[in-house]
Structures are given as C-alpha cells and as structure tokens.
C-alpha cells in the first residue's frame, strides 16, 4: 500500500514497482471524468501507463473488478480515496459502515490472490480539518478504510516527495 499527500509520488511509486516486476499488470482506475479538468487528468494518467497494461474502470465496484483480473497479473488500484469519494456521493450515499466492510472484503480479495497487488490511497488526516461535515466525514471514513486495507497488506509505505518510508505494523512492535 502506498499512502501520502497529494502529489507525493504515490502513483509513480506504484507504476515504477509494477513496471519493474516483469509480469502482466492490470490497472484498476477509480476516477470518473466529471468535468473537463478531470477528463484531461485521466488522459494524462493513462498516457503514463505502458501500452501493454490492461486498464479497468471501477469507479464503484472495486471488489468485482479485482475478481475479474487474471490471477497471474499484478494489480494496481488507484486510488482508494477517489473510490470512497465516489461511494459517498452515490445517490443514495453508501453508508460508512458498508464502505469499511467492503474495504475489508477488498483487502481479503487482494491478499488471497496469487498475483501481487499495489494499492494507492491518500493520507488526509495530516492536513487542515475540513470546514464542512461532508469533508470531515470523508477524512474520517478514508482513515478507517485505509486501516482496513492495510491490515491485509504485506508492506505499506508513506510516500513523501517521491521517497518511500516503510510503515511498521504495530503488531511487530517498535525497534
């Protein structure tokens, strides 16, 4: 799992790791082109990926998308924060408890796959407290979703300025 702030290099770290793996890659994208700027952003991200990679658009059903990927492929999920946002803005919105449950199911699906899985997400709890209830709900929910997914991860990294800092599992104790 790669977490960090906006433009910290999380996605680049996942792309670099996947490209170096030498195995087929399926990129699961969660972004929706809701406006012109987002459409352009998605196009730039697509252009960064190697032509031989498969891309799945899974703006709402990440678990279903993961289940369709060839077991030998490496998966990149980019990104949990946008997925949580999409689900919170569903009509009707997905309840927070349901999203946490789905995140745990997603984590288990990724953990039992034979192929490696890389998950990108934002760390939003280090910034300013959002001024709206929806913003605060998003921040809080994403933090819990991130924890649900990282519990099943073999490795987790905080990405800062393009550099990876390994995150220690509390169960392993401090050294």
Residues in β-strands, percent = 15-25%
Briefly note the CATH topology name.
Answer: Rossmann fold
Number of DSSP E strands: 7
Query: Architecture in CATH?
Result: 3-Layer(aba) Sandwich
The whole-number mean of residue pLDDT values reads 94
Oligomeric status: single chain
Distance between the termini: 21 Å
Largest sheet: 7 strands, mixed
What is the CATH C-level name? Alpha Beta
Count of DSSP helices? 6
Total of domains: 1
Question: At the fourth CATH level, what is the homologous superfamily?
Answer: P-loop containing nucleotide triphosphate hydrolases
Rg (C-alpha, Å): 16 Å
Please estimate the helix content. Answer: 40-55%
Shape verdict: globular
Query: Order of strands in the sheet with the most strands?
Result: 3-2-4-5-1-6-7
Which stretches are poorly predicted, pLDDT < 50 over at least 5 residues? Answer: none
The class by helix and strand makeup works out as: alpha/beta
Order of helices and strands: EHEHEHEHHEHEE
In short:
The protein is α/β, with parallel strands linked by helices and 175 residues long. It has helices at residues 10-21, 36-48, 62-68, 80-88, 96-112, 133-150; strands at 2-4, 25-29, 54-57, 74-78, 117-122, 157-160, 163-166.
